[in-house]
Design brief:
The chain is an alpha+beta fold and 205 residues long. The protein has one domain: C8orf32 fold, CATH 3.10.620. Helix content is 40%, strand content 20%. It contains 7 helices and 7 strands, in the order ααααααβββββββα. The chain has a 7-stranded antiparallel sheet, covered by helices on one side. Strand 1 and strand 2 form a beta hairpin. Helix 2 packs antiparallel against helix 3 and helix 2 packs across helix 5. The radius of gyration is 16 Å and the shape is globular. 37% of the residues are buried.
């Protein structure tokens, strides 16, 4: 079991974690984790707009898209950020999970972040994006691994929202306004499994 520890103020990822990544996945995997750690330290004191842009850009550039079936041999697998970075592959859910966790660690309130299921109309398939609400009644911004920029949901007419959730709730989603609260995210088996896995790795999502 890989354990991620905050050893001191100068180290976000433990030496044991980094050594384990190098041993199991190689030097490039360790370097991706070091780059992630550097991003965290660089952004701790920045404003949220800067944090959003740079976290979105980091994962979109540094991790390649690979389907779950090809990467994990499963139809649907939710990977932790550690898994996505060390194996250098992620599908849309994994990009969102990594961005959500990183922004949460940087101090962005969970209430502003939602993991959002949508239908991507241009490619006619289910998709997942991260949405950010500057205020509770604001039109959210959309962080998407399919495009480079961050745009208002009102401009993302190619996405049809279905539902969203974060660590505190679930909503029937309306991209142009606040969704209708519908329950506890722990009812989602994949979310519960992800939380347990990440907790074992020392990461509380």
């Amino acid at each position: 079991m890989v354990v991620l520890l905050r050893a001191d103020e100068q180290q976000w990822l433990s030496a044991e974690l980094l050594a384990g990544a190098k041993k199991e996945f190689g030097s490039d995997a360790k370097q991706r984790l070091l780059d992630w750690q550097e991003l965290y330290f660089d952004l701790r004191d920045e404003d949220e707009d800067t944090q959003l842009r740079q976290v979105n850009d980091f994962f979109n550039r540094r991790v390649k898209y690979v389907s779950d079936e090809k990467h994990w041999g499963q139809k649907d697998y939710w990977a932790s950020p550690y898994e996505s970075l060390t194996t250098h592959g992620a599908d849309c859910e994994d990009f969102v999970i990594a961005k959500y966790y990183t922004l949460k660690e940087l101090g962005v309130a969970v209430e502003k972040l939602r993991i959002t299921y949508v239908k991507a109309l241009r490619i006619n398939q289910a998709h997942m994006v991260l949405t950010y609400f500057p205020t509770p009644d604001a039109v959210p911004l959309v962080l998407d691994n399919l495009i480079k920029g961050i745009y208002s949901a009102s401009r993302r007419t190619d996405l049809e929202p279905v539902y969203s959730f974060n660590g505190s709730g679930m909503w029937l989603e309306r991209m142009k306004g606040e969704g209708i609260r519908m329950g506890n995210p722990n009812k989602l088996d994949l979310w519960t499994g992800l939380r347990m896995k990440m907790s074992a790795q020392g990461m509380e999502i």
